[in-house]
Amino acid sequence: MAHNHSHEGHNHGHHHHHNANDLKGWKIGVSILLNMLITVGQVIGASISGSIALMTDALHNFSDVISLIISYIANRLTLKEATTSKTYGYKRAEILAAFVNSATLIGVAIFLIVEAIERFSSPISIQADIVIWFAIGSIIINFLSVVLLHNDSKDNMNIRSAYLHLLTDVMTSIAVMFGGLAMKYYNVFWIDGLLTLLIAIYLIYSSFSILKESTKVLMQFTPDGINLEDISIEVCRIEGINNIHHLHVWQLNDNKYMLEAHLEMENDIKLSEFQDKLNIVEEVISKFGIDHTNIQPELNKCDSGVGLIVGS
Questions:
Q1: Which of the four pLDDT bands, split at 50, 70 and 90, describes residue 52?
Q2: Contact indicator for 25, 44 with CB cutoff of 8 Å
Q3: Which pLDDT belongs to residue 311?
Q4: To the nearest whole percent, how much of the chain has pLDDT over 90?
Q5: Can you tell me the distance from the alpha carbon of 89 to that of 193, in angstroms, rounded to the nearest whole number?
Q6: Short-list 277, 272, 221, CA closest to 249
Q7: In this predicted model, what pLDDT tens digit does every residue of 62-72 receive, in sequence order?
Q8: What is the homologous superfamily of the domain 228-310 according to CATH?
Q9: pTM here?
Q10: How far apart are the C-alpha atoms of 154 and 279, rounded to whole Å?
Q11: What is the residue extent of each domain of the chain?
């Protein structure tokens, strides 16, 4: 009975989530269009002006378009209900998107670093005016997208990766604009290569943390901030429980933590009594922010007497 009640509550929350997701979808859609506009513009601008920094910025923007499209698709997929063949639904689509996205960006950045280094050995003169105006256009349009996605980026890894891209775009476009001004007034054309180098290094730096974060989730590592020893100690304090072992905690997506474990009981108790114990155990575990548990009862198993046996 209690179980049913909690399920209703869960469903109720789920509907609320739908609206939030639809809203995000609309915002991502607008950002995609804006970024496509910038990318095309900057590629044209870079081709005319001969600026590799503007081309880097265009590429950065193009990676945004890709990332936003992935985010958009992932966002739609997470709305799909679970089926018998996909019991968790598509909850991990967003994590996968963040992973693919950050990995590609790192590749792109390395390619640009090589290009920039080649430029240093043979700097060419660049039409600075074009660089300046295209950079300003990019700053304005990107800023609009940043404002759009700001709120949703706080609690969603996927939207956050897209948001970070846009934010770095504003920064890089500002840098490219200053580079254009330096070239226009001081004729220092090497600054173009230097900017490319800096933007590319920044791209690698910002993508790496998302790559690491998403890898952790995909590899089902124990989430940060969750200590299995602490959980074990708390659970073993409960009367009638000998120990807890085969303990695993992992993350399904951004905000859903799962736990599975074997509970060894002191006495051969009735199923109804175990149910009461289980309610207490789940209450303790929920304090750690874990909302889904799968617990198997045991009695006098051969590996008893040992405290925390992590894994199987």
A1: confident
A2: no
A3: 52
A4: 34
A5: 46
A6: 221
A7: 878 887 887 78
A8: Cation efflux protein, cytoplasmic domain (3.30.70.1350)
A9: 0.69
A10: 32
A11: 12-218, 228-310
